[in-house]
Amino acid sequence: MKRIATALLYLAALLLAMPAWAHKPSDSYLTLDVEGRRIDGQWDIALRDLDMAIGLDGDGNGELTWNEVRGRQDAIAAYALARLKLASAGQACPLRLTDMLLDEHSDGAYAVLRLHGACGADVARLDVDYGLLFDIDPQHKGLLQLRHGGQASTAIFAPDSAHQTLGVSGASSWRQFGDYARHGIWHIWIGFDHILFLLSLLLPAVLVYRDRKWQGRTTFRAAAFDVLKIVTAFTLAHSITLTLATLGVVALPSRLVESAIAASVVLAALNNLWPLFHGRRALVAFAFGLIHGFGFASVLRDLGLPKASLLLSLVGFNVGVEVGQIAIVAVFLPLAFLMRNSILYRKGILGAGSCLIALVALAWLAERSLDMKLLA
To answer: Pick from 48, 58, 112, 296: most CB atoms within 10 A?
Structure first.
């Protein structure tokens, strides 16, 4: 039991130690269009990441201006291009910067680097070495979309997968499904607001509120059935809005969506302290799941969807999100059930843990709704 308690506390501490990311950590978005021996690209890199790497805030006032970014254009190009190498058939395909713009993503401002390069011969397979930010942020991911002749393939670069070889043609629809499923798994695991919302609803699943206090459920089956209802409701709801938003049928302002997601975490956590909708958590999961679906859609819009296999890629991303959720539940539920009757679980993990989740989510809500910075 002591080892179980330690494991569950470690899991909770790991999740709660990551509040500053709020929605997602560092990603960059690289698109390469290959036609014959010619390569044209666009690389979107967050200004906050570039500021951390090479320093962009010239006057040190904590705010970046276009003049400050433009004044560091050569340094940005040198830093980025030194960390992206392309080759084909063993020969380098050098890239150069042709233009730099600014753009807004769902998580802030990005520098948009327009790139051009050429290989010695027509490209059949492209070797990509990606090393942006890995030396200062091991959680960084590079998200690549490689396009050729109306088809697209994707790849995720991380410190343990910094070199990859990709075929520029013949990417099957099922390959796209697998690529976007991996994207979905990764983004639910780094979407800490989504995870904390789900955990807030799951924490009482191994308990029942009776006589104004929490008591352990008698059977694992009852707890598992409660979890199944919550996860199914959340999945159904966010799948609906993820699809509608990604296809452009419905759109909501990003600040409204992110603020509502933070508010949902606050309410779910406070319900564990003062049960208001105990027994109706599945309904709450569905209602707020509709909002969380818009949050997932913002990630998918940043990734981009290949037109040739749009529906299958969309389904793949959603399947990946569900696989990521199931993995979280599979770790959480058995440990929580074994600890359900302990004071540590009811007072510590459920009580104190829900307080901490609510406080973190309140900080997110203030940041997102008021456009201010509270968490470093």
So the answer is: 296
Question: How many angstroms separate the CA atoms of 367 and 202, rounded?
Answer: 26
Could you tell me what percentage of the chain is helix, strand and coil, using 3-state DSSP and rounding each to the nearest 5? Answer: 55, 20, 25
The whole-number pLDDT of residue 305 equals 67
d(Cα 181, Cα 316) in Å, to the nearest integer?
Answer: 4
**Is 241:286 a contact under the CB 8 Å cutoff?**
no
Q: State whether residue 131 is helix, strand or coil.
A: coil
DSSP letter assigned to residue 156: E
The amino acid at 265: V
DSSP-assigned states of every residue in 161-211 = G-EEEEESS---HHHHHHHHHHHHHHHHHH-HHHHHHHHHHHGGGGEEEET
Domain range list for the chain: 2-22+191-370, 27-172
Q: What is the DSSP letter of 19?
A: G
Residue 54 C-alpha from the chain's centroid = 25
Q: Is 345 exposed, middle or buried (0-12, 13-18, 19+ CB in 10 A)?
A: buried
Residue-wise pLDDT tens digits, 158-213: 898 899 998 887 556 777 788 788 888 888 887 888 899 999 999 999 998 887 78
Q: pTM to 2 decimals?
A: 0.74
Low-confidence ranges of the chain (pLDDT < 50): 4-5, 7-23
Please say whether the beta carbons of 90 and 3 come within 8 A: no
Predicted pLDDT at 8: 47
Q: Of 27, 102, 83, 39, nearest to 301 (Cα)?
A: 27
Residue identified by tokens 């899991």 is 11
How far apart are alpha carbons 359 and 342 in whole angstroms? 24
